[in-house]
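User: Before I run my own analysis I want an independent prediction to cross-check against. Here's the chain; please return only the structure tokens and, at the end, one sentence I can use as a sanity check.
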Amino acid sequence: MNQEMKPAFPKNGMPLENILELIGEYKEQDLSCLRLNANSMKGSAEVQEVGKTIFLEYFLYNALYSVMVPSIGRIEDKLTAMCVEIFNGGPDGRANITVGGTDSIICAVHAMREWARETKQIAEPELIVPYSTHAAFSKAAHYLNIKLIRTPLREDYCADVEAMNKAISPNTIGLVGSAPSWPYGRYDPLREISDLAIEKELWLHVDACLGGYLAPFVKKAGYAIPDFDFSLPGVMSLSADLHKYGHAPKPISTVLWRSEEQQRHHYTLVQDWPTGAYFTQALTGSRPAGPVAAAWGIFKFLGEEGKVELARQTMHVKGLLTEGVNCIDGLKAFENDLTPFMFYSDDYDIGQVVGGLTARGWLMLGTPEPPMAQITLDSVEDELIHDFLKDLKAVVSDIRAGKDVPVTPLAYTYLEDADLSGIPQWAQRALPIMRPTHSEIRKA
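Assistant: Structure tokens:
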């Protein structure tokens, strides 16, 4: 053994209280407030307590065996029925429970590929997605041996439907639209994409992983939200994460289908091994049952009235942030349809603004093209937003005064010349990662 290496596995056990002390020490290194980022979609303390309580009821259960465990099977059936109703699936709609948005997206792309093989005899499949579409589609294309074609955006950062139309070839199996996109929080022109899919006889998948379980209730609260679900006739499948605005414990997502006809292309039935038929809801086999039960219980606890109220408060928070950011010299809120909330600057390096906020305990994300800071909204208290805006003003003041304010990269993961201190070793080994820019895609 290398003398510098220490044994990773302990020779003797450790009491629980000592383990909890270690965890406390480790957590001291975390940013103090996981309140305005991708970890913040909690609904309320009361909602989280409901989810936690129900989660623990099924802490040791494996949802893989829901067909054999009546209570889990019953809960899954009731949960998927609610999800289908939320997205206007009607009596023919179907849904499957997965462990995350990437799982849901890979399942949908797989079904699309199998459908195209059967109905169009396409052997070298191509999938057309706007540049702003989530990275999970690139992963799906890689795993499923599909050629992914990312098409340019319009000037408003939404999908350019004409560019998508021009990219269609005899090998095209489907189109994708976002509701909304993660980089910009804007809805693609899904009605136009739906019409194009119908005209070209292609499968349309809508990625609503981010806002799927928020948008319908925002609409019921009186806000204008574009149509994005099965009310559009071209939509064949839709992905939406319950561990985002369903406020459920991670990991849980859903992939929904227009009918059983689409859903049947999703399933993979394995029988060529000694144990017989192996059949799963999602790409994964074992799934934790705790999040399934918690998601169902949270919906039962809140009902439509409670969901609408949380949606209304979330949009109120967005309004507070918009007003507050626009009142700070040199900063401007980015207008979008739902979440996340974005802001930018023509006067300052927005990476420095993000770095200053990070130094003050606010865990921030960003979008490099164009440079913007990103905040995931939730129905938090007004006081938290006021605290954030106070720190944001202080950071801008420090930058304006020429003080030494750190710069944080805006990419989803830190790339190229970024300071890798504090980044896990496994992530450092994966860097740098080269990716095409939007300008390069436009040239193509």
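Sanity check: The domain at 49-301 is CATH 3.40.640.10 (Aspartate Aminotransferase; domain 2).
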